[in-house]
Amino acid sequence: MRIRTKASAGTMQSSDLMVVVEPSETLRVDVDSTVKKQYEHLIRAQISATLEQLQVTAGHIKISDRGALDYAIAARVETAIRRAAKE
Amino acid sequence: MFAPGSDRPFDRPGPDEARALIESCGLRFEPGYDDLAGLYEQGRLVACGARAGYVLKMLAIAPDHQGGDALGELVTRLVQSGLACGQDTLFVFTLPQNAPSFQALNFRLLAAHGQAALLECGPGLPAYLAEHAAQITPGRNGAVVINGNPFTLGHLHLVERAAARVDRLYLFVVREDSSVFPFAVRFRLAREATARLGNVTVLDTSRYAVSAGTFPSYFLKRLDSRSEAQMQIDLRLFAQHIAPSFHLAARFVGEEPLCPATAAYNRMMAEVLTEYGIALDIIPRIEAGGLPISATRVRAALRDGETKGLEQLVPPATLAFLSSEAARPIQTLLKES
């Protein structure tokens, strides 16, 4: 899937995350999280898995997380990407 | 709060309704915003906040709804409206005791002093610094921050003197478009005038110095406790974040005999910067016809149509611009003001 336009998904509420995706020639993931110290590697692993599943190879993915669980991360990232791909 | 069947939880509250809640929280209601969001529960406004450009303001939450997630909901709504307008990074000015509530929403603290704290969310400062990483050189560097409205021989003198005393001089041009001369023109004229100086790099301040975010009252040229608090924040942000990244050991300013707001800013700058081990060097102004050269003087001359003698006040690049067709609208603007 190709990120064609800027799009976002999610909220800044507790246990949720906000995802903003933008077109970019390379793949870049920026993570802000209230639990970054403890869980950044797991958040990144979940994002990578979702991107791989959707076959996204380029784009700027920005995450602002407040302790969301894996399935929430997957759902928000997927929604943002589908919006950005204009499906 | 998003229970099915309930009223739409968000709405744009009326100004009176918003004003009552905002003032009951001890804040001042200021008209002039791009978006005003309200959070309702059973028809009652329980939280509201506004976004003016990239600045969040008047965030107020009814006492019985504080400590919950009302702030998260409200900020989400304002961040979404910001994103829709291309504002990816948002600033908020708040009391220092409220800073942790914003940090819990992944806002980063930019500076705090006395009764004020400035935070931002989004790509913000780290993205700005990363963008300029390639232009940063090691050594004992210096900085000059100017609005350059427009660039004068006074600015050039300041830059030349400063550049002679440091390894590299960063000339920061205020990004904020609150002046008669648009940013693109101010930036280009600063660049052209200093092009022959090998160790000068011209950069834009983004919003991290003298902007509507860090120092809104600078553009009002007004002195009170509010503008003083903003100056403190503006200077501490510079000292804590900009200076270490650009290896700045000194900041240079022109002596200010004319504008009281700028003179007060310079005095406070000396105090604050020394706290962080940064030197402030005040360079005397140069004169033309017995009076100091300043951008204010150039604008006054343009307003009065006294274009003769401008070459004694501005460098060739500025003079060429002022006599071009592109400067017409600016001259009209000055005459109307």
Short description:
The complex is a heterodimer of chains A (87) and B (337). Chain A contains two helices and four strands. Chain A has helices at 36-53, 70-84, and strands spanning 7-10, 17-22, 27-33, 59-65.
CATH classification class of chain A = Alpha Beta
Mean pLDDT of chain B: 89
What is the SS-derived class of chain B? alpha/beta
Give the strand tally of chain A: 4
Helix content of chain B: 25-40%
What CATH architecture label of the largest domain in chain B applies?
3-Layer(aba) Sandwich
CATH class of the largest domain in chain B: Alpha Beta
> Which class of secondary structure composition applies to the elements of chain A?
alpha+beta
Characterise the protein shown here.
The complex is a heterodimer of chains A (87) and B (337). Chain A contains 2 helices and 4 strands; from the N terminus they run E-E-E-H-E-H. By secondary structure, chain A is an alpha+beta fold. A 4-stranded mixed sheet of chain A has the order 1-2-4-3, with helices on one face. In chain A, strand 1 and strand 2 (17-22) form a beta hairpin. The mean pLDDT of chain A is 96. Chain B has helices at residues 15-24, 70-84, 99-103, 124-131, 153-163, 183-194, 225-245, 260-275, 295-303, 316-322, 328-336, and strands at residues 10-11, 35-41, 44-52, 55-61, 90-94, 108-113, 116-121, 141-146, 169-173, 200-204, 248-254, 279-283, 287-288, 291-292. The interface between A and B is medium-sized, with 16 and 15 residues.
Would you spell out the secondary-structure blueprint of this structure?
The complex is a heterodimer of chains A (87) and B (337).
Chain A: E1 7-10, E2 17-22, E3 27-33, H1 36-53, E4 59-65, H2 70-84
Parallel strand pairs in A: 3-4
Antiparallel strand pairs in A: 1-2, 2-4
Chain B: E1 10-11, H1 15-24, E2 35-41, E3 44-52, E4 55-61, H2 70-84, E5 90-94, H3 99-103, E6 108-113, E7 116-121, H4 124-131, E8 141-146, H5 153-163, E9 169-173, H6 183-194, E10 200-204, H7 225-245, E11 248-254, H8 260-275, E12 279-283, E13 287-288, E14 291-292, H9 295-303, H10 316-322, H11 328-336
